[in-house]
Amino acid sequence: MKNIEIKDMRPKRTNLMDFDKQGLQAYFTAKGDKAFRGTQILQWIHQHGIIDFNEMSNLSKASREDLLATATVNLLEPTIDKTSVDGTRKWLFQLDDGNSIETVFIPEDGRGTLCISSQVGCALNCSFCSTGAMGFNRNLSTGEIIAQLWQANKLLGEYGKKITNVVMMGMGEPTLNYDNVLRAINIMLDDNAYGLSKYRVTLSTSGVVPRMYDLARDSNCSLAVSLHAANDELRNELVPINKKYPLEVLMTACRDFFADEPRRKVTFEYTMIAGVNDSDECANELVTLLADVPCKINLIPFNPFELSNYKCSSRNRIMRFRDRLVEAGFNTMVRKTRGQDIDAACGQLMGNFVDRTRRSEMVKKKLAGKVGN
Ligand code: SAH
Ligand code: SF4
Which terminal residue of the chain, N or C, has fewer Cβ atoms less than 10 Å from its own Cβ? Predict the structure, then answer.
């Protein structure tokens, strides 16, 4: 007998997690309802953490019934939930298509930072990053990006109280998933949703210059730029997107980014890799490069991962490098390595791929080989 494929003919429900306030308002006005219904839904889902339409007490019965029939609020399934000895917590979230992404919560005195993913993998292939080593699978939807924040709030308890900062520094290059990331950031900043301060929502980019100009126009979030080298030759090697947008255009974009708010500063991230970018000469080059860019500098001790031959610079080297920058007048921090014991530190996030691109297949084989040795 022939196999008969049974198709689900029911109309697809709309995932309300995919919309920011503007999108929700448009959704309701298109139905002939009032725009403010969109604001009410935004408040229920994101401000109060309520996703059951029956509990949304200021909606009419007719509205609730309509939503029950036509809409959903899709969440992510946490399949791994690990806590580091230092309190850092990492989740592996399963997506509908079987891929997985990683989200990390870093508690500190007086604040809690959530590090969010924007893509499954990354196409940019920076030589020191495990996400890059996996290659690119797909962009996350707005719903999948913001659900990381929703879910982390729930899993941490006291919804909306513990997460004060969000950094788009997980898996992926956020500017290459621009529209979805922008909508998610809108929701983070919206007073009717998470209401996070613009100083506390940071997008990190490896330097996709045209999208930096778009972001400056479209959002007032904060910006971090992954620099890692102060000359084009070395940066081409470490951050290959530099070949397309070299340092000169990148620095102009950084100077222009906060042109309307001169008191705000771009943060530069600089991963310290032994013998590669950590010499006194590199520090001097950095001082010259950033001389006229209002900025803060974050030095990140390189986090090792399987498949990488790089090593982290010694503590002494990092301190000497920092001292040189401080002497030259730069506000410089050395980022504390957090969550290394659970592979949650910067650059250690790999997630899980379902469909095996040749690269991820190769990476997995290599990893299997290493484990076996
Ligand atoms: N794609 C974006 C955001 C994700 S990467 C970007 O590149 O900015 C977040 C930060 O982690 C970046 O500064 C990145 O350079 C850094 N990083 C990547 N791999 C790392 C590693 N192995 N050790 C330390 N930092 C790393
Ligand atoms: Fe992608 Fe950022 Fe990793 Fe580079 S550092 S491969 S841009 S995630």
Answer: N
Q: Is 126 in the pocket of ligand 2 (CB under 6 A)?
A: yes
Find out whether the beta carbon of 347 lies less than 6 Å from any atom of ligand 1.
yes
Ligand 1 nearest-atom number relative to CA 224: 8
Query: Ligand 1: which of 129, 173, 312 to mutate, judged by most atoms within 8 Å of the beta carbon?
Result: 129
pTM for this predicted structure: 0.92
Q: What is the whole-number distance in angstroms between the Cα of residue 337 and the centre of ligand 1? A: 13
Q: How far is the CA of 363 from the centre of ligand 2 (A)?
A: 16
* H-helix segments, 136-177: 142-156
What does the alpha-carbon distance between residue 147 and residue 137 come to, in Å, rounded to a whole number? 19
Query: How many other C-beta atoms can be found within 10 angstroms of the C-beta atom of residue 88?
Result: 23
Q: What is the dihedral sign for C-alpha 336, 343, 365, 121?
A: negative
> Distance between CA atoms of 170 and 230, rounded to whole angstroms?
24
Taking the mean position of all CA atoms in its chain, how far away is CA 7? Answer: 36
Q: How far, in Å, from the CA of 49 to the mean position of ligand 1?
A: 30
137 CA to centre of ligand 2 in angstroms: 13
d(CA 136, CA 134): 7
| 124 in Cβ contact with 204 (< 8 Å) | no
d(CA 196, CA 192): 10
Report which protein residue has its CA nearest ligand 1's atom 3: 169
Of 24, 350, 335, nearest in space to 202 by CA? 335
**Using one digit for the tens of pLDDT, what is the confidence trace for 164-212?**
999 999 999 999 999 999 999 999 999 999 999 999 999 999 999 999 9
182-332-152-36 Cα dihedral, nearest 10 degrees: -40
